[in-house]
UniProtKB/TrEMBL annotation:
<protein>
    <submittedName>
        <fullName>Uncharacterized protein</fullName>
    </submittedName>
</protein>
Length: 276
């Protein structure tokens, strides 16, 4: 079984029959075929018209017909966005790179980013990562200190608090904390960089530095978060694709492109408008 088949099976595990029905455009007779041959799922998502249709459905459901398309899972929506973005990068010469709040500059390395985005394991990783934040988790653990037991709260997008769990949970559970820390770092850097810059102040970075043992500086928060992700994924093992673990910058940039195109539409102003 090659990598594409392994990835396709994972897609099949995520998708419900209702998802597959949406993927086939409502043709119920094809759902069974997708279950038997899940690589067909990837073939369909790679078709721009199919991915665009799913994204249009997701984008208009809540606004125009709130009860009609609620059966489409977050994973299917984000998988469509990932595949559409990957396909859209093919043949491009540049990619818009964030230079600041509501500011982008063209970076002429689109072929390299397109190659990264075309790897099936990377596509699965991105879709799973995005879907995993459709609902946020948090909670509390009890930690024994010199002053007795202390309740410690955590939130998976509050990275300093999440990292503090590394010193509070048993060793066997730390890889899971590292994994979520790495995911959260690239997610914030790619999708919500402005929020990350506002919330990761000097004190928060100091706490993150102490919990992870990393030498972190706040000069460039997105790049700092890439360092956190790289270190975190080193502790996880085979759970993260090797290419994504070694190149969190590529993950961050793809997440930014996906966010700019499908989550928070952004129109770059450094290209001339059409002639009238």
């Amino acid at each position: 079984m090659d990598e594409r088949e392994v990835v396709a099976r994972r897609y099949g595990e995520h998708l419900t029959d209702q998802d597959l029905l949406a993927l086939t455009g409502g043709r119920a007779d094809q759902v069974g075929a997708l279950r038997r041959e899940p690589t067909l799922i990837l073939d369909l998502l790679d078709r721009p018209a199919v991915a665009d249709g799913l994204l249009l459905t997701a984008g208009t459901a809540g606004r125009d017909e709130p009860d009609r398309f609620t059966f489409i899972s977050p994973f299917l929506v984000f998988a469509a966005a990932v595949h559409r973005t990957a396909r859209g990068l093919v043949g491009s010469t540049y990619v818009a790179e964030r230079a600041g709040p509501r500011s982008r500059v063209p970076v002429f390395d689109a072929p390299e980013l397109a190659a990264f985005a075309s790897v099936p394991a990377h596509q699965l990783y991105l879709a799973e990562l995005l879907a995993s934040y459709s609902r946020l988790s948090g909670g509390e653990v009890w930690r024994r200190t010199d002053r007795g037991w202390r309740r410690q709260r955590w939130d998976e997008l509050d990275l300093p608090r999440l990292a503090a769990l590394l010193g509070a949970v048993p060793a066997a559970q730390r890889p899971a904390v590292w994994r979520r820390l790495g995911d959260g770092a690239v997610f914030l850097a790619g999708v919500f960089p402005d929020h990350a810059e506002r919330t990761l102040g000097l004190l928060a970075v100091s706490r993150l530095r102490e919990a992870t043992g990393l030498r972190l500086t706040r000069d460039d928060v997105p790049r700092m978060l890439e360092s956190v992700a790289r270190r975190a994924y080193e502790q996880v093992g085979p759970g993260v694709p090797v290419g994504a673990a070694k190149a969190p910058g590529s993950t961050r940039r793809l997440l930014t492109v996906i966010a700019d195109r499908y989550l928070f539409p952004f129109a770059a102003d450094w290209l001339p408008g059409p002639a009238h």
